[in-house]
Each structure stands twice: as structure tokens, then as C-alpha cells.
Amino acid sequence: MSLRQFIAARFLLRSFNIVKDKAVLRWKEFATLFGLEDDLFYNPAHKQLAQPVKVILIGAGHRGNKYASYSLKFPDELKIVAVADNNPERRRRAAKAYGIPDNMCFNDWTHVFFKEKFADAVIIATPDQLHTQPCLAALDAGYDVLLEKPIAPTEAECRQILKKATETNRIVGVCHVLRYSPYFRELKAILDAGLIGDIISIHHMEPIEHVHMSHSYVRGKWRNSNSAAPIILAKSSHDTDIIRWLVGSKVHDVHCFGNLRWFTNANAPEGSTERCTDGCQVESSCPYSALQIYYRDRKRLYVFDLPEDKSDWDKLILEQLKTTDYGRCVYRMDNDQPDHLTVNILFENGVTAAFSMEAHVSYEGRRTRIMGSKGDIIGDMETFVMTDFKTRKQTSWSMKTDAHGGGDHPLVRDWVQAVGQQDKTLLSSTIEASVESHLMSFAAERSRLNRTIEEIHF
């Protein structure tokens, strides 16, 4: 380690040690200290709805059920009245969970729109490449929409959905749930209140975590940008959106570098096999062993749609590893998604942002550094530390949340209110705001592939 690296490391440790000795505040304490709103989710425009919003769930997988489960906690606000999914097990589970009758369970989303309009809205949580057509059909049929991100895998389709939403005057909310996480809501309140002065620049990192990367973007259905969407869109459109939201200015230019460095055939260890179950000689030492991840550790099993009775799970998991992509060697896939990339962004107000997506890390949870004219903020989704330049006073906040920062149900709440009151201004992540942040992702991918600086035209 050089002297410069040693000094930098000591300084970083010292800054966190200072904070460790001080009180860590909850948001109400923090808000009281600085005169901010103590409930960032309170909205005086919210009101008791005369009846629950009736919703059709199109896509009953992991994410779709995250949103639909709001109805189980707040049945007076949301009711799931139908489900469409081509997987019979997912349809059965959704029907059981939400009390959906057999005649309202569809094996094809198109069948929903053969019937006259029978609900208020739809939740679309189908695979990325199957967002556009059901969304357009729903808007044409007079439904409001909650659309899982990304909006669509191409810029043309995103603009098509925006155009249709405008023409039909329907509400389209996009599931940028980070806008509804306490961490980012509170950062936004601090920035809007000017507690660190004007924003000068932002450094933001999304650490995917190495196993998550292997699961979703090497073995999983998002592994290839031709069959899904580029990873900057499929995974990190959350981040382009949150950066744009925090800065509060239109984007001018985007520049990106990144590539697939590790998960390639050239890096396959000697003795490895096509599948982890084929007698791979390095399986026991491989951090991406499918036998370790799925069979021994029982992680990320939602992709297998296992039965509720766990007595047969051992046999069923092994069958899946022998027959599906989740059992294949991570070095022998048809994946093309970058496992690291860096995006530089210039906003019209002069603010710069540097975003990094990293797969080769042992942890998850976004890391944020915001540099202001009067102070700065360092945060990691569960904590942040704000330092005032003048007084050198450091104030810290902490809160444990889930992987999406606790934003799933707060987003659904706003969407339900927007649909129930027919007022899209009650939404933060409208289709208009979301399309602009998607354009940042498309520009970043063009820049990465062509080594260009891309100008944004909304």
C-alpha cells in the first residue's frame, strides 16, 4: 500500500469512527432537529376510498406478488379480482392467496381483454420483453396500469407506451420503488431543504453481489441483452431514475464504459463441467456452485415454483438443476451482460453524477455520496451521515429495511390513491418521469457499445 492509499484509508476510517461515537437518529429525531417533515409518506391528498380499487394481476411471479400482496394488508384499498399467468402453479397460488374464482384465472394475458372491462386497473409484472403489448391493450381497454420496470426493452416501445397513455388519458405508474424507500425519501427531503447547499456532484454505486449476479444475469432470464433488456436497464434503471430524481434537472449528456470480464468460457476452471451436477471437479470450491446455492443453502428458490410441502424438495431441486439453466456452469452460458460498468452523467444545471454497477462484490445495498456546496452525505441504504462544512458537525441516521429499501408497498399505496381518485399527480414515478430516466439507460448502453458521448433528447 502506498503512502497516499494509507492516508486515504485512515481518513475514511476516522470519519466513520467519529460518527460511531455519536447518537444514531431515527428520521423523526432527524427531522425535528432540522425542521423537516417527520412523516415523509404522509400525503394530505390521500383519503378514504369509497371502495377498494379492483385490479387484475398479469404476471404472478415474485415481483407481481410483492405488489399484489398489498391487498392482503389493506383489503379496503385494493382487491385482486383476476390473475393471468401461463404457469399453472403460479395461477393456483395467486387464486388461493387472493380468493380469485376459477373463471377469473387466465393462462394467457390476451384472454383478459376478450372480456368487457371488469376491473379498475391492472398490475403488469410479466417478463421485460412482454410488457409492451399487455400495457397497450390495457390502456386501449380503459384500464389504469402499474407497470413493473423496465417499462419496455427498447426506447421505441417506451415512447409508444408514453404516447398511448397520453392519448387515452390513463394513469400509468412505473415500479421505481426506490423513490418510496425511506432512505431515498429522506435524502430527497434533505437535498430539497438545502441542508448541504446546492448539489455539486453525486457518486452512486449499485453492488449487485456476486451470487445475485450469477443467479439473475448469468444463469437467469436476464442473462442476455437480446432476449431480455440490457443490464443497465433491467437492473439499474432504478439507479438512473433515483439519480435523476435527486438532482431534479434534465440530463444533457451520458457516457459509459463496461464489459463482461469474468463470466465467460475462457475463465472456466480446469475440471469444470457443463452442469454443476455432472461431477464437476471444482464444484466444492466454486463460489457459484448451483448445488451450494440452491440445494444446500436453499437460496433463491422462488424460480422453481416448488410445492408448499417441503418433503420432496431435495428431489425436485436436483431435478431442476439437471434440467434448467440454474444448474449450468456460470462460465458456459450464453450470457452477454456486463459484470461491471461505469456511467458518467452531465445534467443541464451543471451537476455531474458518476454511477457504477458492480457484480464482483460480497454485499448488496446501494452506496451513495452526495457532494454539496455546504456539506456532504455518505450513505448505504440503511445509514447515512451528513457533515456540515462550517461546523464539522456530523449527523447520522439508520434504519433496517428489505432489499428494495421498504419501498414496495408505499409505492402501491400511492398508485391505489392515484387510481381511486383518478389523479396521477399523487404518483412520484409517473410514466413521464420514468421514460426520461429510461432514456438515460438507453443512452448509456449506446455509449458503452459505440464509445460515444450521448446527448439526451426527451
Short description:
The chain has helices at 3-20, 27-34, 62-68, 70-73, 88-98, 132-140, 155-168, 182-192, 210-218, 231-234, 237-247, 290-296, 313-323, 408-421, 431-450, and strands spanning 24-25, 53-58, 78-84, 105-106, 121-124, 144-147, 172-174, 199-207, 251-259, 340-347, 352-358, 367-372, 375-379, 383-388, 394-398, 453-455. It has 458 residues and is α/β, with parallel strands linked by helices. Helix 7 (155-168) runs antiparallel to helix 15 (431-450), helix 11 crosses helix 15 (431-450) and helix 12 packs antiparallel against helix 13 (313-323).
What do you see in this structure?
This protein is α/β, with parallel strands linked by helices and 458 residues long. The chain has helices at residues 3-20, 27-34, 62-68, 70-73, 88-98, 132-140, 155-168, 182-192, 210-218, 231-234, 237-247, 290-296, 313-323, 408-421, 431-450, and strands at 24-25, 53-58, 78-84, 105-106, 121-124, 144-147, 172-174, 199-207, 251-259, 340-347, 352-358, 367-372, 375-379, 383-388, 394-398, 453-455. Helix 11 (237-247) packs across helix 15. It is globular, with a radius of gyration of 23 Å. The model is unreliable at 1-21 (pLDDT under 50).
